[in-house]
């Protein structure tokens, strides 16, 4: 994924830039395709065993969670828990600017007013997801395993029985691997119980869903105050990503 992003988002500068909503949305429109390519390259069994419509269903669910979980993990990893990190390496750390700088006309609300409206959501996001990630002290291996677990989610609307069985089997294998990783990490830290570490990892899965709830509420509020033009429906349409047909993903038929 990192190599795909480097090719798509070349860094001609080394200084991070604070972005506004429209810029962030343009980045996600490109990144969603990279994520689909990454997922299909990492898990070729998806295209081998599932219909394109089921692959698309899993990817949409995955990418929504990825857009809140990866920034939370990067915020902790880089020691900047109050920032939202974008796929380009740029950040969002000023609420007022994020919701007003992209507007063609002066906003109806001052920067201070916008900050008062939206800051509680940013605080809620930190409390809901960033702080639990801090407490968990995730390794990169644990982070990637959790991402894989929510890729193979079950109980989704429109999910076929075949897809559910496929995902359940994949999740069982991933849970076993995550348990082994937690045990290995705790063996080198005699004071930590691996069962507790595993449980902390598991508690992040519902925390990620709550992070999405905060994100969706923020989108709805931005539309209500006419500070952004992207509704939750628009966002989900973008997150649908490619059609997952082999020709579109550049996968050659065997």
Ordered list of secondary-structure elements with their pairings:
Elements: H1 2-8, H2 21-42, H3 45-49, H4 52-77, E1 84-85, E2 91-92, H5 95-100, H6 111-136, H7 140-151, H8 161-187, H9 194-224, H10 232-239, H11 246-249
Antiparallel strand pairs: 1-2
Helix pairs in contact: 4-6, 4-7, 4-9, 6-9, 7-8, 8-9
Task: Domain count, please report it.
Answer: 1
Widest sheet, order of strands: 1-2
Number of strands: 2
What is the CATH topology classification name? Retinoid X Receptor
CATH architecture: Orthogonal Bundle
| Unreliable stretches | 247-254
Mean pLDDT score, rounded? Answer: 83
Organism: Caenorhabditis tropicalis
Protein name: NR LBD domain-containing protein
Keywords: Receptor, Transcription, Transcription regulation
InterPro entries: Nhr-150, NHR-like_dom_sf, Nucl_hrmn_rcpt_lig-bd
Provide a descriptive summary of the structure in words.
- This is NR LBD domain-containing protein.
- It holds the Pfam family Hormone_recep.
- The protein is mainly α and 254 residues long.
- The chain has one domain (2-244): Retinoid X Receptor (Orthogonal Bundle), CATH 1.10.565.
- It has helices at 2-8, 21-42, 45-49, 52-77, 95-100, 111-136, 140-151, 161-187, 194-224, 232-239, 246-249; strands at residues 84-85, 91-92.
- The chain has a two-stranded antiparallel ribbon.
- A hairpin with a 5-residue loop joins β1 and β2 (91-92).
- α4 crosses α6 (111-136), α4 runs antiparallel to α7 (140-151) and α8 crosses α9 (194-224).
- The longest helix is centred in the last third of the chain and has 31 residues, at 194-224.
- 30% of the residues are buried.
């Amino acid at each position: 994924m990192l190599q795909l992003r480097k090719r798509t988002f070349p860094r001609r500068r080394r200084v991070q830039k604070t972005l506004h909503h429209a810029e962030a949305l343009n980045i996600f429109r490109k990144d969603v395709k990279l994520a689909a390519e990454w997922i299909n390259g990492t898990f070729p069994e998806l295209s081998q065993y599932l219909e394109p419509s089921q692959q698309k269903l899993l990817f949409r669910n995955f990418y929504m969670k990825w857009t809140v979980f990866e920034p939370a993990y990067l915020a902790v990893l880089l020691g900047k828990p109050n920032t939202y990190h974008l796929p380009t390496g740029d950040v969002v750390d000023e609420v007022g600017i994020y919701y007003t700088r992209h507007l063609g006309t002066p906003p109806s609300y001052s920067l201070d007013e916008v900050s008062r409206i939206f800051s509680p959501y940013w605080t809620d996001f930190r409390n809901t997801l960033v702080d639990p990630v801090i407490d968990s002290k995730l390794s990169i291996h644990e982070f990637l395993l959790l991402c894989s677990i929510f890729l193979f989610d079950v109980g989704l609307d429109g999910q076929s029985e075949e897809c559910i069985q496929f995902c359940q089997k994949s999740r069982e294998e991933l849970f076993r691997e995550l348990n082994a990783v937690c045990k290995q990490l705790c063996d080198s830290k005699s004071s930590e119980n691996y069962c507790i570490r595993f449980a902390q990892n598991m508690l992040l899965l519902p925390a990620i869903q709550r992070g999405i709830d905060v994100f969706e509420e923020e989108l709805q509020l931005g539309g209500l105050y006419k500070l952004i033009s992207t509704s939750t429906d628009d966002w989900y349409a973008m997150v649908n990503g490619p059609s997952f047909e082999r020709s579109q993903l550049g996968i050659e038929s065997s």
